[in-house]
């Protein structure tokens, strides 16, 4: 299974990943197929992580500061509040 970030949406990648997990959990997959499914699952997982990071960078949080409300990139807003991004 070749995954191309531009051709697969986050939702499609998650559906494919769920299908792979279900097949692997069934235990009815030959070892070679299981290895291939695992590798495909890892690629899909990385693709989903990458897409989530892209979305996170685009999200802006509005935070209240002593100088008023300011826009901050998502990660910076969490750092200011002492949260992990």
Radius of gyration: 19 Å
Number of strands: 2
Could you tell me how far the N terminus lies from the C terminus, measured between alpha carbons in angstroms? 31 Å
Low-confidence stretches: none
Mean pLDDT: 82
Structural class by secondary-structure content: alpha+beta
In terms of DSSP E residues, the strand content is 5-15%
The portion of residues assigned to helices is 55-70%
The largest pleated sheet is described as: 2 strands, antiparallel
Order of helices and strands: HHEEH
* Global morphology: rod-shaped
- Record the strand order, biggest sheet: 1-2
Individual helix count: 3
Name the features.
3 helices; two-stranded antiparallel ribbon; 85 residues; alpha+beta; 14% strand; 62% helix
What does this structure look like?
The model has no long low-confidence stretch (mean pLDDT 82). Strands 1-2 form a two-stranded antiparallel ribbon. It is α+β, with helices and mostly antiparallel strands and 85 residues long. It is rod-shaped, with a radius of gyration of 19 Å. The longest helix is centred in the middle third of the chain and has 28 residues, at 31-58. It has a domain at 10-58. α1 runs antiparallel to α2 (31-58). It has three helices and two strands. The chain has helices spanning 10-26, 31-58, 74-81; strands spanning 60-65, 68-73.
